[in-house]
Amino acid sequence: MMEYLHTMVRVSDLDKALDFYVTKFGMVEVRRVDNKAGRFTLVFLAAPGDVERAKNSRAPLLELTHNWDPEAYTGGRNFGHLAFKVDNIYETCERLMKAGVTINRPPRDGNMAFIRSPDLISIELLQAGEPLAPAEPWTSMPNTGVW
Questions:
Q1: Can you give the pTM of this predicted structure?
Q2: Which is the most buried residue in 22, 69, 129, 142, by most CB within 10 A?
């Protein structure tokens, strides 16, 4: 038997990471471990639609690892990316933009967009079901940076 459990990303500033993933992006903290001996904190997050399953260890999670001693993490792009299905990609991108998140690759096709976390982790947003009809401002919005 094999079961997917979680994806771990290291974060340099836990408060900033939680502001992004929870406050702006909308994930939910389901478990936290502070390890004083190891000098690290683990925070496990679930997508809102997975919270109940996550309580019973039946949903994939995002594990944020915060090492208490400063350490430089470079090149978040070499990680690849996290991917999330969303009900309405246009509404999701609009909400994120209003919260100050850069839409690196806008959903010009009504189906896919990319953003980055404060630690430069690429996050792909995919439209649930069929792509939405192309619409402004997304259709003509240029890419920003890398993802």
A1: 0.82
A2: 22
Residues sharing a CB contact under 8 Å with residue 93, sequence separation 6 or more, in sequence order: 103, 106, 107, 113, 125, 138
Distance between CA atoms of residues 30 and 125, nearest Å: 22
Tell me the C-alpha distance between 142 and 147, whole Å: 13
Residues 29 and 55 both lie in one domain: yes
26-59 tens-digit pLDDT: 999 999 999 999 999 999 999 999 999 988 878 8
Structural domain that includes position 106 = 76-127
* 83 shares its domain with 123: yes
Question: Are residues 111 and 131 in contact, defined by beta-carbon separation less than 8 angstroms?
Answer: yes
Between these two residues, 56 and 111, which has the higher pLDDT value?
Answer: 111
Q: Which among 19, 34, 67 is the end of a domain?
A: 67
Tell me how far the alpha carbon of residue 120 is from its chain's centroid: 10
Lowest-pLDDT range, 63-67, 89-93, 97-101? 63-67
d(CA 116, CA 4): 23
Give me the pLDDT at residue 78, please: 57
Could you list the active site residues? 124
Number of domains the chain contains = 2
pLDDT at 96 over 80: yes
